[in-house]
Design brief:
Blueprint (H helix, E strand, L loop, with lengths): L1 H16 L3 E7 L6 E3 L4 E3 L16 E4 L3 E8 L1 E16 L2 E18 L5 E9 L5 E12 L4 H37 L11 H13 L1
Antiparallel strand pairs: 1-9, 2-5, 3-4, 4-9, 5-8, 6-7, 6-8, 6-9
Helix pairs in contact: 1-2
The structure holds 2-acetamido-2-deoxy-beta-D-glucopyranose (4 copies).
Keywords: Membrane, Signal, Transmembrane, Transmembrane helix
Length: 208
């Protein structure tokens, strides 16, 4: 019965996951994002106590030279940062956008019409003296494998759960039968000759 239950859960999960395009958020502190060189400063609530806009998950990374490299698999990408001066966005080795003078962390670059495949986004500071404060990056990836595979999986799961339930039922019935045949007639607690019952009855009679 446990296994049948698990299969039902898996089937339910398959239906839940079948949401199509799903957003994933990468915090600036995510190990997926690499900084070359290391950020000038990593803001945490302790280091930067009162930011104008509280950063996602409490952190942001400040970069003045080099580049930030963000690999992802998906069909859309959204970059949230603030910048003094300017910065450039390079997607799969092509400059695809610029941003300049964003005082507060906001959407600085996005593209939602990419092929749903692996990409590498690079962000680098523009003119000398530019400063990027990266907060987070969102990418969308279609987690649906194929409708047929999921329906197949769900139907298969339900069929397996049903077979297992019936199997469990038959097995229990057989075990019950076996108990009956080895012990002969099934005896409950209510056989009148049971010594303890007789004693109790005698006790009651004596009390009267
Ligand atoms: C993903 O996030 C972006 C912005 O953060 C939003 O515009 C978009 O609608 C979201 N997509 C999905 C599928 O939730
Ligand atoms: C948020 O920050 C905490 C540490 O402060 C970390 O353990 C956690 O993984 C972070 N969550 C995300 C989604 O980055
Ligand atoms: C970004 O700015 C650079 C330098 O200012 C320029 O050469 C490039 O064409 C710009 N790219 C886009 C996509 O705006
Ligand atoms: C997004 O990227 C695709 C593929 O690189 C490109 O064809 C498209 O013009 C871009 N869209 C925007 C809004 O920049």
């Amino acid at each position: 019965m446990h296994l049948a239950h698990s299969l039902w859960t898996v089937a339910a999960l398959c239906v839940a996951v079948h949401g199509g395009l799903t957003n994933f958020t990468l915090d600036d502190a995510s190990p997926v994002i690499s900084y070359t060189p290391a950020p000038l400063q990593q803001c945490t609530p302790e280091v930067c106590p009162e930011p104008a806009v509280p950063p996602y998950n409490g952190t942001s990374s400040t970069v003045v030279v080099g580049h930030i490299s963000i690999p992802f698999v998906g069909s859309a990408v959204y970059v949230y940062l603030s910048v003094q001066g300017s910065c450039s966005f390079n997607l799969d080795d092509q400059v695809v956008g610029n941003a300049s003078n964003l005082e507060f962390i906001s959407l600085a670059f996005s593209n939602d019409s990419l092929p749903d495949s692996p990409h590498v986004l690079m962000i680098y500071p523009g003119l000398w003296g530019s400063l990027i404060e990266l907060d987070y990056v969102v990418f969308s990836h279609n987690v649906r494998t194929s409708r047929g595979a999921i329906i197949g999986g769900v139907v298969g799961g339900i069929a397996a759960a049903t077979v297992l339930s019936i199997g469990g039922f038959l097995l229990r019935r057989r075990q019950k039968r076996k108990q009956l045949s080895t012990r002969g007639v099934p005896l409950g607690d209510h056989w009148p000759d049971k010594p303890s019952i007789q004693l109790a009855e005698m006790g009651k009679r004596e009390q009267k």
